[in-house]
């Protein structure tokens, strides 16, 4: 039976979001293949996942732009969305653009402030901001008679945020909110809370904290809502978490691992601000150090804004290691990819898996989706293949249960 599921994107007209919405509509129209989509692999075929033609898009955006203009800009600057694709999806992008609403940027950092100087939240309390977001979600759901709503966080990076002790407990966390402690609440936390209180699964693909702390996890369980995040793993870090276990398995000591990234899109501009840059680099470095487990390893990540590159992110990694007889050796690799074209199919995968988990009456943190993230909440493993095995085991268990139910 067909369903209508709303996908509400925070940071709706950013590059990743625009590619995701354009891609979903292009898949509906049959003008692109399913390459890049994990959930289109044969392992997932019996799960009865959400179809792309069942998705309706809306979202919060802090700039005065719509999805048609954003897709045209991305096509012009990066050459990824072809004229044929754009014309095939233009009517759908126009329809979805009617569902856009102004977003909030509280404590989102100087980079975000530079592209949205007139924040909508200035006259509202913290609770007022959450309630306004919930109102937008409720109106979207009612206007389209949606069966379900999923919130996806795709904004630019916030400054690194360490949750205070009160964020470990629901009561103290909510007390801070009601006391209007604006200094302690990044916008991503407000969006996560609004999603959870609205009964909507929440996916955080950014470095922002979102739902990644104990009080929000407990609130999600109380509301029967699944959540997952954070910081999508798409390029250089995907390579790192694939290669690093190899060095450990072969007992090759990594002395130094230098990673240098260049990025020219709007996210790159935001990351040019030191506070946002620190948060992103921390996620990329921590997962490597966790896998290697060697305090003597020198590792460092650097991200520089290079405007001419646009969305074509380039990363160079230099790995200095020792083997038998103390022999020093070097591995280097260069990764160049369209950042949003790598990320957007994973976003669609996560939408489908979050919806599936919710229909399966699962709530709280979805640990089996850790392979999609650099810094997954409550991560027990950062090596990509072990993370991916956990996902496939989850899928196999559900496939087996469905087959058993049909017998």
Quick structural summary:
The chain is of the alpha/beta class.
Fold and architecture overview:
It contains 13 helices and 11 strands. The protein is of the alpha/beta class and 407 residues long. The protein folds into 2 domains: 5-232 and 341-401, 3-Layer(aba) Sandwich (Rossmann fold); 236-338, Dihydrodipicolinate Reductase, domain 2 (2-Layer Sandwich). Strands 3-2-1-4-5-6-11 form a 7-stranded parallel β-sheet, with helices on both faces. The longest helix has 23 residues, at 384-406.
Individual helix count: 13
- Uncertain runs with pLDDT below 50, 5 residues or more? none
CATH topology call of the largest domain: Rossmann fold
* Order of neighbouring strands in the sheet with most strands: 3-2-1-4-5-6-11
Q: What order do the SSEs take from the amino end to the carboxyl end, as H and E?
A: EHEHHEHHEHHEHEHEHHEEEHEH
Radius of gyration based on Cα positions: 21 Å
- Helical content class: 40-55%
Shape label: globular
Mean pLDDT: 93
Find the CATH superfamily of the largest domain.
NAD(P)-binding Rossmann-like Domain
User: What class would the helix/strand composition place it in?
Assistant: alpha/beta
Instruction: Quickly count the domains.
Output: 2
Architecture of the largest domain, CATH level 2? 3-Layer(aba) Sandwich
Q: The biggest beta sheet, please? A: 7 strands, parallel
- Look at the structure and give the CATH class of the largest domain: Alpha Beta
- Cα(first) to Cα(last) distance is 21 Å
Strand content: 15-25%
* Number of beta-strand segments: 11
